[in-house]
Amino acid sequence: MVNVLLVEDDDGDAFLLKEAMNKTQFENVLHHCHDGLEAQSFLQDQASPRPDFILLDLNMPRMGGLEVLKWVKEHDDLKDIPVGILTTSSAEDDISQSYKNYASYYIVKPTTFDDLMSVVNLIDDFWIKTVQLPNAR
What we know:
alpha/beta; Rossmann fold; 5-stranded parallel sheet; 5 helices
């Protein structure tokens, strides 16, 4: 079972991602936080499952994705969690800042469900079937 933390303020995008992940072959539990502050609370709560990886939007209210990324990578007990950026921004500065702050990958959100399904299948192929992920707490 793979625990995925999705940090996404758009409920429609979160719903589509959940639908796409339900169609994959890997068993997963998608935990959804609507912004960075909610994600911080989730990650600090010892009762919450430790995510195997985080899918992070950049443009969110209250606390944006780059702030969340920096915060995660500053915490010894969290910094080994792979964090992928999944956002609408294709701005070079956002891409550069994400990688400078140790994002594992940067993907511009697809505009169709079929393209989203392709992205989720790539995540499955690489992050689930290929690489070794850190142990959960």
